Amino acid sequence: MRDNIYKPYLMRIEKITSEAPEVKTFQLKFINEDEGKNFSFKAGQFAEYSAMGEGECTFCIASSPTRMDFIECTFRRAGKVTTALIGLNEGDIIGFRGPYGNIFPIDDWKGKNLLFIAGGIALPPMRCVIWNCLDLRNNFKDVTIVYGARTVADLVYKHELKEWQERTDVKLIITVDPGGETPDWKGEIGFVPTVLDKIAPSSENTIAIVCGPPIMIKYTFPVLEKYKFKAEDIFTTLENRMKCGFGKCGRCNVGKYFVCKDGPVFTYAQLKSLPAEY
Amino acid sequence: MEIQKKLLKNDSLDKLFAQLKSAGKIIIAPVRKGDQTYFCRVESASEIDFDYIQTVKSAKEIVFPRIEKLFDYKIEQDSQKISETDLEKFSEIVLFGIHPCDIIAFRALKTVFTWDYTDNYFIARQNKLTIIGLSCAKHDEYCFCTTMGIDPGETAGSDILFTKLSTGDFLAEIVTEKGKTIVDIGTELFLPDPVVNKLDYITKVPLLFEVKELSKKLENMFESPVWDEMSLRCLGCGACAYVCPVCSCFDIQDEGKIYSGCRYRCWDSCGFGQFTLHTSGHNPREEQFQRWRQRIMHKFLYQPDRQQVMGCVGCGRCSRACPVDMNILEHLLSLTI
After folding, report:
1. B159 vs chain A: nearest CA distance in angstroms?
2. pLDDT of A146-191, one tens digit each?
3. For chain A, which residues make up each domain, given as ranges?
4. Do residues A91 and A15 touch, judged by C-beta distance below 8 A?
5. Which residues of chain A does B242 touch, with a Cβ-Cβ cutoff of 8 Å?
6. Which residue of A27, A271, B260, B307 pairs with A70 in a disulfide if CB–CB is 3.0 to 4.6 A?
7. Does the distance separating the beta carbons of A250 and B250 come in below 8 Å?
């Protein structure tokens, strides 16, 4: 742990990728190489990214811990800090604190089928665990990814979607909301829960990982329950407003649990026992 | 260490203060201003209000200032510098005349600021702090320390605890090694144990309810309609959190530009609507009743459960400060019925 828990690492933006309208991915490299060598994290953890002078904001680390050359984050311009971040250029420097929070228990998922369900800008937090599992592909059985966005343009990681589509060991289903399709769209049209229902996923020996806007999550859990997924086998990652990331600033709690310390990864079984403060 | 008892004459206080000052210490003590009492820097004992019941603001800002600069930064393409505050530069402070409830509150703060991640700003300030407490000779209808498990003559948390005797002199109970160093600074001023019955000089604050029972009840009260009823008049002004000796929620803000500036940690309150507001516009605690519920739940259920400390010391400041007369004690009593 660092001496000053508030002090960020300084990171240089090596590469910027435009993913979708107002959505960018930063590839970040530690300016101090020793800090980079000593840094480690696990899938599911998050960090505080700062546009110095504007403040910090919270996103999950979007790159996989199996690929430590860079740290990557993907964000949409939404508030003050992301507006400042999106205006930065390659070579610019940002602050980075972390990693914080708990992890996806992928060691426990060995020998199981994995069903990833993501909506919109929630693919980035899931991308970390997807790549982590794909880089350890032999540990798992079938891997299915269901991903939806409002429109074709809003789909993020377009080149990686293509890569997953071409892999024979991944089943990828992409959907866009009705009206969000283009004339040459070949994927599904419909909301994520509807499409999920259509593919009727088997719950046998399967872990479901769900990430998306609250409304998508709300309608996805019942579909999974319909197909007899156990609440303990459904994982999600919560987002609440945070400042510190380490259980002190007081705003991210859901009942007695802190999203920053006890989360951000929760099972549906845990969520059922918590008040809906997220 | 075993508590040692001594007598300090009223007229020796100024001599003690002079010695503490010449040892480089700043003395902060309760000072009356009009009809209110505040913790202020003092130079002599004559400035001190020994008879106060409660100060308007707590003393928490000594270890947890309203605004704490975390670092300055200067960032250029080829040179970057984050300069941190020199923790050694914090002043040595003697906090004199603080009541036991506030002293116990420092423990709750410490629990938060050391929960897995240690906040060195807090710890450095606390290390430089010596606490000379003062037992309570009086209380008012807002006080409920005993209900929160704190005795108005409690020595725990003090380095030295003073109890004012009828002669105007003080019984000094030396509790810690740090307290002993103060005695060592003014050895000749501390006379032998006056052998008095301390309880004769301490107010008796009635025990109003079982706080453990309250915590148990709260476990099943999240959906209760009482939160709405209780908070109908709440303005969400946050005064309760600002005067509270235990409230420690904070915000982190930057001041400056992308190439140079500084970052601060500053007080915040769970009573503010924007406290939990997501950038998307979604707010998990959108209504004032949800925020009032959070305040009560956090202090009397979550904090005891997760950190084994009570989030309230019964000082009564929030009730005294509330502009619309919300009284936490009334609320707690109604919850326990």
Report:
1. 27
2. 999 999 999 999 999 999 999 999 999 999 999 999 999 999 999 9
3. 9-100, 106-237
4. no
5. none
6. A27
7. yes
CATH fold for domain A9-100: Elongation Factor Tu (Ef-tu); domain 3 (2.40.30)
Q: Please give the Cα distance from B162 to B122 (Å, whole number).
A: 25
Q: What are phi and psi of B133, to 5 degrees?
A: -80, 170
Which residue from B113, B119, B285 is facing A277, i.e. has the nearest CB? B285
Q: What is the pTM of this model?
A: 0.94
Q: Which fold has domain A106-237?
A: Rossmann fold (3.40.50)
Task: Write the residue in B113, B251, B261 that is nearest to A52 by C-beta.
Answer: B261
pLDDT band at B1 (very low <50, low <70, confident <90, very high): confident
Per-residue confidence band for B166, with pLDDT thresholds at 50, 70 and 90: very high
| Cα–Cα nearest to B90, from B133, B69, B121 | B121
- Residue in A6, A82, A254 closest to B70 by CB: A6
B121, B257, B272, B279, best to mutate vs chain A, most A CBs in 10 Å: B279
- Inter-chain touch B257–A254, beta carbons under 8 Å: no
Residues of A in contact with B86 (CB under 8 A): none
Does pLDDT of A2 surpass 80? no
User: For residues A127, A25, A40 and A238, what is the CA-based torsion angle, rounded to 10 degrees?
Assistant: -50
Give the C-alpha separation, A231 to A99, whole Å.
Answer: 27
| Partner-chain residue, chosen from B116, B258, B277, that has the shortest CB–CB distance to A247 | B116
- Cβ contact A93–B75 (<8 Å): yes
Query: Which tokens belong to B109?
Result: 């703060």
Cis peptide before A178 (omega within 30 of 0): no
> Is 90 exceeded by the pLDDT of residue A1?
no
pLDDT tens-digit map of B239-290: 999 999 999 999 999 999 989 999 999 999 999 999 999 998 999 999 999 9
